[in-house]
Structures are given as C-alpha cells and as structure tokens.
Design brief:
The protein has seven helices and 62 strands. It is mostly beta strands.
Length: 1253
C-alpha cells in the first residue's frame, strides 16, 4: 500500500535499509490514494504527531454493574444509549466519574446548550493510561473538538467550533485507547465571549515551478467574527491532494498578518521559497490562518483555504514533449472527463503513448469490447519516480479493475472478473498520482477462452513429523473456472523455511487427480514423505496445483496455498553440537584469510551451522572467466543469516541481508560478472533486533544444484514405520495383518534388494495400495494373490479393490514385492483399509405396458439388484406412469421393503398388473421404476436407480368411441373414409352390404340382407333362385346372376334346359300359356298379346283398336245396347230389328214387343256368357297354379303375380310401381338375351329394391 506517513520512531533505525525493505511493496490501498491514521481530518499542525499503540488493556477493571455519571448503568457507546448531562451543565471541578475497560471501551454523554453558551470539558485519566476525549455529533462522524495526546488531562471545548454560542445538542465521547480504569469528567458551561473567526479564500498559486524557486502566492483572509483578531500568523503547506495529512510538506515560510477588524478582509501577496529537496510532481497549496491555534476563535475549522489548481514542480508534459500533447495519436491531450472519453474503436489491440502531469490529471479513453472477449491494459511510465494509475469502468460507471502499485507496469483487466466475456464499452482512466511522465499504454482485446481454474480452498495436515516419515497433506481443490476440467492435474506439497515458495524448497509429495467439474470442490490427500536429509526445525507447508503449467487455466496466479501454522520436523537445533561445515568435518573460518576452500565454482549444495558461539562462516571458491556467480542462502529453520560476496581484493561484489527471507545474490549486472578469480562468501548470523539470528544448519547453494543427496544407507531403516526391514520376497514377506493401515517410507539399496509385504482383507472391506518412487528410480514392483497369481491391474503405483469387479469386497490375501533392480533410494508405501463399498441398487429388465385403451389392464415387471456392497435395512421403490413430457401421471405400484443383500444379489423381482383409469388421456406413455430415491440406503452412484420402460400408446376410451356409439368399430359420422355405421345404436360387425349391423354368421352381410343369416358361406342370392351366389359355399349357385333351379343345366342354380312346346319363344318353365297357337304374338309370359287391352287376344279380337274402357264382346268389339239403332223404312238392307241383317231398310223405327223381347234375351245371354268365360279363366289359373309344382314359394309368388298382372274381365294388368325407365331397362336386358322373367328380376333390384328387403 502507499505509505505516506512518518514511520514510527522505533522503526527509524530501518531507514538505512529502506531501499531493500520497500522493494515490491504495494503503495496504495484505495483510489483516494491516501491513508489517514486517524478517523478525522487534521485540526491543526500539532495533530501531525503520529500515534503509536492501538491496543487496549486485556483486563476488565470496571465492575459488572457500573454507575457512570453517578447513576446506575453504563454510559453507552451510541447516541441512543448515551447518558444525558442536561442543558448547560456545570459539574466542575468535582465532576462525575465513569469507567472504561477492555469490555467497555467507550462512554458517551449528551449535552444540550442554549444560545450564547460554550462548554469546556476536561477528562482526568488514570495514571499510565491513554484515554481520548472528543466532541462529536450523534453518529460520531463529525468531530468538533478532540484531545488525544494530553494524558492524564484531556481538554476540549466548543469554543472556536461551529458549536460555539449555538443552541444545539452534541455528545462527549470518551474512548479507551490503551489501559482501563475510572475517569473523572468535568464540564463547565460559560457565556460565549466575543471572538474572531478567520477564514482563507482565493488562494492564487503558479501553474509551474521548480524545486528551490521563490514563487508568488496570494490569498484573501477574512474575519467573520464579532471582534478583531489581533496580530496572527498564516502558514503554508503543499500536498498532492486537498487533504492535509502525514507526509505532506509544511513550509517554513510564515506570513505575519496585522490585526483584522470584525467582518474585515485583506488581500495578501507574498513570496514563498519551495524547498529544494521537494520531489517533482503536482501540488495543491494550503494556506492556514492561525495554524497553531494561538488565537481563540468562534470556529477553528474554517481557517484553511486550498488552491484551486496545482503547481507542477519540474517539467510538465509540454516541457517533456516540446509542444502540444498528442495522447494516443489524437493530436491533443486526451479528455480529462469520462463523459468526453475518446472513442478508440472496437476489438482493439494496440500500443499508445501519452503524457500526464498534475495539471493534466486524467486521460480518458473508451474501448468497445465484443461479447466473448476480455480487455487487458498495461501502462509503463517513462519516469520511474512518477506514479500513474489505471482504472477500468464499464458503461454504467462500475469499477471493473484497477492498477495502482508502487512500480511499473501498472496493469488492469476485465479477465477473471464478472465482466470477462461481457460485451460493453469500457472506459479506461489513466490517472495521475504523482510526478510527470510520458507513458506507454499497451491494450489487448483477447477472446475469452473457457478454461478451468484450479485453486485450493483448504490445506490441513499434522503439526509435526520426523525425517523419513510418511506425512499426509489433505487439501480441498476447487475449480472456479468456466468449464469442467477434462484432464488430470498434479498436486504437490512442499516445506519451506520462510514465507513463499522457491525452487530450492523441499518437495515432499505429489499426486494427480482427474479434472473436476466447474463450480465444484473435491478433497484430495497428497501422500508425502519428510526427506531423510531435511534440517530439523519449523517449516511452512505449501501446496501447489499444476506447478508445471500443463493445464491451460484462466488464472495461474492462484495455484498456491500455505497451511496456517508451522510444521515441526524432529527437534529443532539449539546449537551446533558438531561442526561439519560443507561436509568437511570442521567449522568454516569466521574471518578473511581463514575461509573454507570449496574449490572450483560449480553447481552444488553445502551445509553449515551457526549459533551464539559461531556468528560467521567464510568460504571461498575459484571462478573461471565468463562464469556468473549465483548464490542462495537458505536460513536455518530456527535462525536467520545474511549473505555477502567479495572479490579477492576485498571489494564487495553483492550482498543480501535476507530480512525475513532467504538471501539471494548474483554477480550479474556487476563489474565482476564473468571475471575470473577467487571470491569469498560470507555467511553471517543476523544480529538485528527485529530478526533473531537463532541457531541451526543453513543451506548454501552455488548455481543450480540438483537435489541434495546425503550419504545413502538402508541399514537399520524402519520400512513404513514398522521398526524393521520388510520381507525378502514372496515366500518370506513381512506380514502386516488383516485389514491393515500402513503408511510411510521404505528403503532399498545395497544388500537390501527386495521388500515384500503381505496383507489380507475380510468382512467385505477394501484396500487402497499406493506406491510412489522418485521419477528416476529404477525400482519395480509386483502384486500377487496368495496363490502366486499376478494381480493384472496393478500398475506399479496404485491399486484399489474398490470399483474392481474381481476384488471389490472379496476376502483375500495379497503380497506386494518391491525390487531395487540394483538401484537405491526411498519409496513411499500406503496401504489403507477402506470400509465395505456402499450398496448400489440398480433397476433392470423393466417391462411395462403395450398399446392399449384406457380401461384395459396394464401389465408390468422389473428387477432390482444390489450390484455392490452389503445392504441391510429398508429400501423403497416406486413404479410410476409418465406422459410423453416426462410428467408424473400416477403411481402404478410402490412399497418399502427390508432386505440384506451383497454383490449381485436380486433383492426384488416384481410382476403384476393394474387397471388404468378409463379417463386417462390419449397419448404416448412410459413407465419409470425408481429405487431408493429417498436415500434410505446410502449409495455413491444413484445413476442406475432409475430405469424406463419402452414407450407405448394409450387410447382414451371415451375419445376412442366418441364417434362410435355402439363401439363396434364403425363411426357414427363420416371421418373422411366414407364408412358410416348403418346401425349406429346397435353393435355389429357387418361390412359387405351395410357397415356395423348385426351379422350372426360373421360373413360380413347384415342379418337383414343376408340370404342365409346363419350360414357364414352364403350371404347373397342376386338371381333369387334359392341358391347362394358363393358357388363354393353351402348349396352354392353355379350360375350366379341367372335364375336357376336344382339340377339346372350347369348345376344347382342354373336355368333348366330350354323347352318351348308351343313354339312361341317362351320356355315352358316360364310360359303361362304353353299352348298358344302357332304364329300368334305373345308377351313375356308366353300368352297372346292384347294390344288394346280389352281382354281379348289379338288373334281373337275382331276390333283390335277398341278404346280403353269400352265393354267388348267375345270378339273384342264394343257391345251395342240398342239405344243407337235406327228404324228401317222397309227398304234397303238395314236391319229390321230382328237382328238377322235382312230387311228392306224401310223400317218405321218402331220396335214391336217381340223384337224388344228378343233383344233383351240376347243381351242377357251375353252377360251370362261373359260370366261363364270369366269363371272358366279363373278356374284355368287356379289349375295352372296347382299343376306347376316343384318351385319354391318365390316362384309361386312370381307366377301368381304374373297371373294377376294379365288383363282379365276388362281390368288392366299394369303395375303402377313399374316405371317407364324400368320397362326400358328390361327391354335392354331382353335384347342382351335375358328372358322377360330374368329381365324383370334384375330390374326390380334397382328400381324396386323394397321387394327384396
């Protein structure tokens, strides 16, 4: 952080070392760029004295029940709990008492004043204690007056503050800074006397100057008080900001001002010399009236006036550039305000230059960063003594990152912030803090590449160990990156004497773990071993992830973590009991001329010892021409040493005091780099009071030596801490027991060529075996079962029975054999017994459902196995029905059961069924079986606790039959296939003649229209001959479509052989008049034609055109009733009334009685004759009906209908239901070869279908 204050007096001894101590320290902690050592602004110049202690006493001197200010209870430390001393209080000089201690560090008292009053307060502090006294507002953020350094009597007053003479309320705040005990508080209220009130304004200063210059400074002083000031002093100070604080410069110049009357003012012009040693930079001027409070004023807080501008000491940007500024190539100074920031473009990667000074405190630039990218900035100042900072803000003004260290480069970035990858316009503020300098600004816009980010959340271990022992280091590894880790990562552990980790510290262990998902943590044990050659004492334990940078991470700077507290290895050295410096068997000399000779300079590690009696060790070595000397001196764990290098002529080449760290130096960048000669190394025990030199062994490293190797021997070594050497082979192993826990280092070398360890497992337990060796070790290893069979998956470094299909949870005995193969060294062995593997309940073989209707039965079955460790107790399972969206519909079945099962055992085989709710919606469904979802049984792997059945379709019952009332499969209304249920309200399965009607024999024809409703082989008889049209069915018609008879020509249902006895063209079988005279015209029934329809055949009709409706005689002529006869005249040939056609034609028109009588006789006889003829015809028809036997009823009906259709007794035989269209169709059939009867039958099917229903 920035250090702007005067160092504590006790630390001033360090001044000579400050260049070394300050290196690398941060100089700032906040953007305001200043630190206040008190929590209020400096009141006057006396307040520049720093405080030393901030601790309070450890004891509690106050009684449990306090009586602050003479009343029961503690005076609280807030305005709401403060004790009220009343209005215009006076209790001096006796005062009131109170108490503060470690548990009650603060007391507050409320005071109320009326107008024209001032309050004086005294605090009597117990001897040797440090209490502070303040006048504050209710929030303790406004300080009106204070006293901190005047113990044992602290004094404050409202006089000279803005409380003076004002009717108001304020608070007395007492604070124990150090110590505790009872205090006395004295309060006086007095009338406010007339007082001056000085204020400064209008401070005018030069814009530029040089250190040592005498410059003009002008100001206006005004007296706002109600009395004159008298003579007073005005003081001056300069500051980089407008807050007077420690580290600011109070100038020697004092301006003596004459008396200033009330409400008077004076414009003063003066000249002030700037100290020659003032650091170049930009400074505000502070003018202070009565800076040391020699005059009592109404208000002391307004005595200061600041200049509006800064004075730049030294060169400014114009001087450096020699002309106008050209920041970032803009041709001018970059804007000083964020709202006017220069737009530098999008996706920028570039280098810019600029200049900044006190008069030009800010340069603002805008950069557009696309989504998926991040923005990085680095700034280097040309003048290393200047201080320029960087700030990045987003478009909302939020601070993203900042760079404000004490040295260049300053860097800032959106990477590793909440803004990484966020597209936005970012504002870069190049901000002046001190000095004047050109700067170089490097800007990068880089793509934000998703990557893991490994760091440690926690590191724990034991607090002590011994050289050669195994030592576990437990860490919690976190991946806070943006993607999952997908490769292994190495974790290492180290021991370091000092804070920080370096290449020469002791690596004690390592392990690898698979990459972990982002946003997760994992606990890892790093198996470690304390080096056998380590110097005993106190060490810091560090862990590092991915030290070799093999994994691309978002941030490599957070891969290291230190364990809190120290690790003690063996017993720390308290003295150098035996001197063996550099391994030469004696103590190195402690003065020039007595150096221990190390020979030619080469990469090597040496060790030596210092203590109270041996304060220095001197060594020398020879360096060839062109060589660079690099030295590292590692402190003893319980001591401190420093390092210096001298040439042969006694000139110091380089040195490092190693304050609180190891010492490092090099001849590089010195005049002696590469110069051949003999050099002396001085190792000195530290003697400074702040760093105890202590005692013990240090390490002196020349160059870059390899790992320090102590003389090797396995003699008497306790392999893995067992107290003895391990066995010598498979047949002679060290038996370390059943379900063992062994961890430690073992040794191989020399005559100890093989180590063998035998261990066993039972009760379902599991083993972890880890064997780690040095990377260069030639050791080999083999793992056997008790029968001498190699364990195939032993990889030479680790093996576990967990998740091992062959060995997990199985009893057995194993032998691990480690062979030296002629090499020597140490290896670490860990054999740990783990409890039985957790259970692993798994669902399999799920069979559930098939395409179905919602009211049908659903069948299901499934199995549950335990695949791993033993399970004893209850577990629950559920099978549920899910819709196509995976939403739960209904629990089909569930239960909680008790079981004991081990590896691979079936714990449930379930098979059952249920009826689904008929209201289940139509859709695609599946069954899901879940076991142990409530974790009643502990499992590591729950991924196989759920299994799904195949999808199947459920058709909603009501929806299925919504358009099929009788549910026979035929829709009530047409759905586009043209099929409609002809019997919608009664179930049926007919499909041939009608759809969805009753069909008893199941031949597809409805019962109504089925020719044989109980014969599934026959359903139609189109020709109505009594034989079904299916010729292969029962009594099938061999001539379907043609009327036939039994045994007809061609088989049943075929017409009989054509016989026409009377030769009229009508077969006898259809001829109703089978004796028609030859040559006469006949109709379809074989009877003579009666053209005029008068009932007399044409061959007998003498009057073939008799009008319709006329009565005719036997010869078809109209019957004359005599009413139209004419009388004869006795001449001619007319009738004479006798009916004999004779007469003379001369009748007189009179009919005598005889004639009349004769006519009536004839008429009566005609009627009788007609009746006789009708009777004969009727008798003939009846005879024909009985004579024509052998046909079925339908044939009889046909003939009967034909008979009744014939004209008889002057009654027309035409059926009115036969239309002209039907007659035309029958004629077409006749023309095609059908006889009239067949033509009529076919025509009736189309034109009169009701006859066949």
């Amino acid at each position: 952080m920035r250090v702007r204050s005067i160092l504590l007096a006790a630390l001033m001894i360090l001044v000579t070392f400050s260049p070394l101590v300050a290196a690398g320290l941060d100089e700032k902690t906040q953007q305001s760029e200043s630190i206040s050592f008190i929590d209020h602004q400096i009141e006057n110049l006396n307040d520049l004295m720093p405080r030393i202690s901030t601790a309070t006493g450890g004891r509690a001197a106050c009684s449990t029940v306090q009586t602050d200010a003479g009343s029961a209870g503690d005076a609280g430390n807030t305005s709401t709990t403060a004790k009220d001393l009343g209005t215009d209080p006076n209790n001096g000089p006796t005062g009131v008492t109170g108490c503060v201690d470690a548990n009650d560090k603060e007391d507050m008292y409320k005071v109320t004043t009326t107008a024209g009053k001032d309050v004086d307060v005294e605090l009597v502090v117990p001897a040797n204690m440090d209490f502070d006294l303040y006048l504050v507002d209710s929030t303790k953020t406004t300080f009106y007056s204070w006293s901190e350094y005047n113990d044992p009597l602290e004094k404050v007053s409202t006089g000279g503050t803005n409380l003076s003479g004002v009717a108001t309320s304020f608070y007395i705040w007492i604070k124990a800074y150090t110590g505790d005990g009872q205090y006395t508080l004295r309060v006086w209220t007095n009338n406010t006397p007339p007082r001056p009130d000085m204020t400064i304004s209008g401070v005018e200063v030069p814009a530029k100057a040089q250190a040592g210059d005498t410059v003009d400074v002008n100001y206006t002083v005004e007296n706002l008080g109600n009395t004159s000031t008298g003579a007073f002093e005005v003081h001056f100070a300069i500051s980089t900001d407008q807050i007077l604080g420690f580290g600011d410069t109070v100038l020697d110049h004092v301006e003596n001002e004459a008396d200033l009357a009330s409400n008077g003012s004076r414009y003063t012009q003066t000249q002030i010399t700037i100290p020659a040693n003032t650091t170049n930079g930009s400074y505000y001027w502070l003018v202070i009236a009565d800076g040391y409070d020699n005059i009592t004023e109404q208000n002391d807080s307004n005595n200061e006036g600041w200049s509006a501008i800064q004075t730049t000491l030294g060169k400014d940007c114009l001087d450096l550039i020699g002309g106008p500024q050209n920041d970032a190539g803009l041709g001018a100074d970059a804007p000083n305000e964020a709202v006017n920031a220069s737009d530098m473009g999008s996706n920028v990667t570039a280098t810019y230059t600029g200049c900044i000074d006190g008069a030009d405190p800010f340069d603002y630039f805008n950069f557009d960063v696309p989504s998926g990218y991040y923005f990085e900035v680095s700034l280097t100042g040309e003048d290393a003594s200047s201080d320029i900072d960087l700030y990045i803000h987003d478009s909302n003004g939020s601070e993203v990152d900042l760079g404000f260290t004490s040295s260049y480069p300053e860097t800032a970035s959106t990477k590793l912030t909440n803004w990484e990858g966020v597209g936005d316009t970012y504002t870069l503020n190049v901000s002046h803090y001190s000095g004047v300098s050109n700067y170089t600004l490097d800007v990068w816009t880089n793509q934000s590449i998703p990557a893991p980010d490994y760091h440690f959340d926690e590191v724990t271990s034991g607090t002590s160990s011994n050289a050669g022992d195994g030592f576990n280091v437990d860490v919690v590894l976190n991946n806070s990156g943006t993607i999952d880790g997908n490769s292994t990562v190495e974790l290492k552990s180290f021991l370091s004497v000092n804070f920080g980790l370096d290449w020469y510290d002791h690596e004690i262990g390592s392990t690898t773990v698979n990459g972990i998902p982002m946003g997760t943590t994992t606990s890892v044990t790093i198996p470690s071993t304390i080096p056998i050659d380590i110097v005993p004492g106190s060490y810091n334990l560090y862990v590092v992830v991915d030290q070799d940078k093999l994994v691309v991470e978002r941030n490599d700077d957070n891969n290291e973590m230190r364990r809190n507290g120290i690790i003690t290895i063996d017993t720390a050295e308290t003295s150098c009991s035996t001197q063996n410096d550099a391994g030469m068997g004696s103590d190195a000399g402690s003065s020039a001329g007595n150096e221990m000779d190390l020979g030619q300079y080469t990469d090597a590690e040496y060790r030596g010892c210092i203590d109270n009696n041996d304060l220095a060790d001197y060594y020398k070595f020879t360096v060839a021409s062109g060589e660079t000397i690099d030295l590292v001196l590692v402190d003893p764990p319980e001591g401190a040493v420093n390092l210096a290098l001298f040439a042969s002529d006694g000139t110091e080449v380089a040195s490092d005091p190693g304050l609180f760290e190891d010492s490092e130096l090099s001849s590089a960048d010195t005049p002696y780099d590469g110069v051949a000669g003999t050099y002396t190394v001085m190792v000195n025990r530290s003697t400074t009071f702040w760093e105890d030199g202590g005692n013990g062994t240090y390490r002196l490293l020349l160059g870059l030596p390899g790992k320090y190797v102590a003389p090797f021997s396995c003699s008497g070594y306790s392999d893995t801490g067992t107290g003895t050497d391990a066995g010598t082979g498979f047949s002679n192993p060290m038996i370390i027991g059943t379900n063992p826990v062994v961890e430690g280092q073992a040794c191989l070398g020399g005559t100890d060529e093989v180590d063998a360890f035998q261990f066993s497992l039972d009760s379902g337990n599991n083993l972890n075996v880890n064997l780690s060796m040095e990377p260069t070790s030639g050791f080999t290893s083999e793992l056997f079962d008790i029968d001498g069979n190699l364990v195939s998956d032993w990889d030479g470094s680790s093996w576990t029975t967990l998740n091992n299909e062959m060995y997990e949870g199985q009893d057995g005995t194993f032998v691990l054999v480690v062979n030296s193969e002629g090499d020597e060294g140490y290896y670490n062995l860990s054999i740990a017994t783990n409890p039985p593997a957790p259970a692993d309940l798994a669902v399999s073989n799920v069979s559930c459902g098939a395409d179905m209707v919602s009211n049908e039965e659903l069948y299901y079955s499934f199995d549950i196995h335990n695949l791993r460790g033993p399970v004893l107790g209850d577990f629950s399972w559920t099978i549920e029905l899910l819709d196509s969206e995976g939403q739960h519909i209904v629990d089909i079945d569930s239960a909680t059961q008790n079981t004991y099962a081990i590896y691979g055992q079936l714990i449930l085989g379930r098979s059952s069924s249920i009826y689904l709710d008929s209201e289940t919606l139509t859709g695609v469904y599946s069954c899901q079986v879940m076991v142990n979802m409530d974790a009643m049984v502990f499992e590591e792997d729950m991924t196989n606790n759920i299994a799904m059945g195949e999808n199947f379709t459920i058709q909603n019952e009501a929806e299925l039959w919504a358009n099929d009332i009788d549910r026979d499969g035929y829709n009530t209304t047409d759905v586009g296939d043209g099929i409609i249920d002809d019997c919608p309200e009664s179930w049926g399965e007919s499909w041939g003649d009608r759809s969805g009607c009753a069909d008893l024999d199941g031949d597809g024809w409805s019962n109504l229209n089925d020719f044989a409703p109980l014969d599934e082989s026959q359903w139609e008889d189109v020709d109505e001959d009594g034989f079904g049209d299916n010729s292969t069915g029962f009594e099938g018609d061999q001539c379907p479509g043609v009327y036939g008879i039994t045994g007809g020509e061609g088989g049943d249902g075929c017409p009989e052989a054509f016989v026409d006895t009377d030769g009229d063209g009508i077969a006898d079988s259809a001829d109703q008049c089978d004796d028609t005279p030859s040559g006469v015209a006949v109709d379809a029934d074989g009877c003579e034609v009666d053209t005029d329809g008068d009932g007399v055949a044409d061959s007998q009709d003498n009057c073939p055109a008799t009008p319709t409706g006329e009565s005719v005689d036997l010869f078809g002529c109209k019957i004359d009733d005599g009413s139209t006869g004419s009388g004869g005249d006795g001449s001619g040939n007319g009738g004479d009334g006798n009916g004999d056609d004779s007469g003379d034609g001369n009748g007189d028109g009179n009919v005598n009685d005889d004639t009349k009588s004769g006519d009536n006789f004839i008429e009566d006889n005609m009627m009788m004759i007609a009746a006789a003829v009708g009777g004969i015809i009727l008798l003939l028809i009846i005879t024909i009906l009985f004579v024509r036997g052998g046909g079925d009823d339908s044939k009889d009906d046909m003939f009967a209908n034909a008979a009744f259709n014939d004209p008889m007794m002057s009654v027309g035989g035409v059926d009115p239901t036969i239309t002209a269209e039907q007659l035309s169709y029958e004629q077409q059939l006749a023309a095609a070869g059908y006889n009239p009867q067949q033509a009529r039958q076919y025509a009736d099917q189309h034109f009169r279908p009701w006859l066949n229903q």
